[in-house]
Amino acid sequence: MLTIAMLTTPALAQEKALQDADWIAGQMRTQTGGGYSARLRMEMRPGAGKPVVMQILVKGERSDKTFSLLWQVMYPGKMKGAGVLVLRQQGKFIGGAAYLPGGPLEKFGAENLSGRIFGSDLSFEDLDQEFWKWEIQKDGGRTTLNNVACVTVESRRGSEKSIYQKIRSVIDLNKMVPLRIEKYAAAGKLVRLIETLHVVKLDSGRFVADKFLVSSPGEGTSTLIEVVDVKKASYPEAQFTAAALLELKMP
């Protein structure tokens, strides 16, 4: 969900995007390389009752072969230190762990990827962008979203393991940023919707989303996520272990 982007020129992007869904999926993959740290504001909006606000510290490291991600709660105080760890290797989920203050450290497997993060609308699987590596990427044609020229790409699960059967992305052709991502279960039911609310241009000229809304259609709940700060970083492997969940270390 958080990316360190590396983009091509808008004109070339438009030309290529209209020709090849695999090419544009490859462009999305290049946006998620390297290490980074980020701070998020997450507002969970239940169908009834008051919203719950959390501040999250994110640490991530991604290469062509591995992906490591750690989310830890900084606020509110009663949840401070709660964390989730997700690890992938060669595109496959190899393990995860979760910790709540006062409780045991719990490890989980691929069968638990549908679990919700801190009670939000994000699942464990939503924390990465592995669907851009799926074998099947289909051209969906051109469309317009909020008066923005876009191209759609449909990612379909092949031999990969996922809680989703297909994912449809609507991508801004000029900025090369997904504006809407629809995630469908095996029965073809839309179960997760991610909508980009704001896009910023970095000093490098790259565009990234820094505010988005995640909702669960049919459940009446949503989660607003705002990126407060993000920067490149590098971490040792020991930072991404179950034991690291027991300590909240600021970057």
CATH class: Mainly Beta
- Using the 3D structure, state the CATH architecture: Clam
Main beta sheet: strand number and arrangement?
Answer: 13 strands, antiparallel
CATH superfamily: Lipoprotein localisation LolA/LolB/LppX
CATH topology: outer membrane lipoprotein receptor (LolB), chain A
Number of helices: 2
Q: Report the portion of residues in β strands.
A: over 45%
Radius of gyration: 18 Å
Q: What are the secondary-structure elements, in order, as H or E?
A: HHEEEEEEEEEEEEE
Q: Could you explain how this protein is built, in words?
A:
The two termini are 19 Å apart. The longest helix has 10 residues, at 21-30. Mean pLDDT is 86; it is low at 2-9. This protein is mostly beta strands. Strand 7 and strand 8 (148-156) form a beta hairpin. It has one domain: Clam (outer membrane lipoprotein receptor (LolB), chain A), CATH 2.50.20. A 13-stranded antiparallel sheet has the order 6-5-4-3-2-1-13-12-11-10-9-8-7, covered by helices on one side. The protein contains two helices and 13 strands.
